[in-house]
Write a structure and sequence with these properties.
Elements lengths: L2 E6 L3 H11 L5 E7 L2 H11 L3 E4 L8 H7 L5 E6 L5 H6 L4 E4 L4 H18 L16 E6 L2 E6 L3 E7 L2 E6 L5 E2 L3 H7 L5 E3 L4 E4 L3 E6 L5 E5 L4 E4 L1 H11 L2
Parallel strand pairs: 1-2, 1-3, 3-4, 4-5
Antiparallel strand pairs: 6-7, 8-9, 8-12, 9-10, 11-12, 13-14, 14-15
Helix pairs in contact: 2-3
Amino acid sequence: MPIKAIIIDDERLARNELKKLLEQHPDINIIDEAGNVDEAIEKIDLSRPDLIFLDIQMPGKTGFDLLAEIEKSPRVIFTTAYDEFALKAFEVNALDYLLKPIDPKRLADAIQKLQIEIALEQASLLGVSRGPLTEVDQVFVKDGERCWFVKLADIRLFESVGNYAKVYFSTNKPLILKSLNALEERLDDRVFFRANRKHIINLHWIEKIEPYFNGGLLVELKGGEKIEISRRQTVKFKEMMSF
């Protein structure tokens, strides 16, 4: 879903430059712009944006004055030529603080932060939501300082590691504090199959299947991992995969 945004800056040139940079981010839909605080308050009340790009130093009232006057603040990314307001910006829970001229990489990082924050509020592997997560859903995965925004279709394997689960996608294998049983409850069982006590596999990532000892099966995933399907689960697997 597009993120509705308003650009608030008294300099037309600065607004135009930011709009041009945001063309690289189709998720951000610029629905309006304003050149001063009073105009911005009217437009925020009218259109209820998800996000505002907010200059600080403007004639009459500052960006901080605006935040003090509106009842419910959208998410805020400050855009300013001055770095001395950074601490105060984070005191009002700003998502990010971008110095002009805005660096495209810093803007991209700020938007990724925004997407992660939204993902955390919505259905994610780290939270509770209604109904199973399907392969088209995107989830937020965090491991220490690193974090990813991943489509479930790209996750080929979950592996139990004590109280954690290792998540296999691309070349990454981060750990999340989630049991395999809890994951199994959340995932669509038409796509994600409990192969054994330690693994849940994405059926769409299976490359090869061969018989294994004790009546089980061995599947090889497109990522190269070889996973045993237990004898008990093999019966269920064959039922699922046949007409």
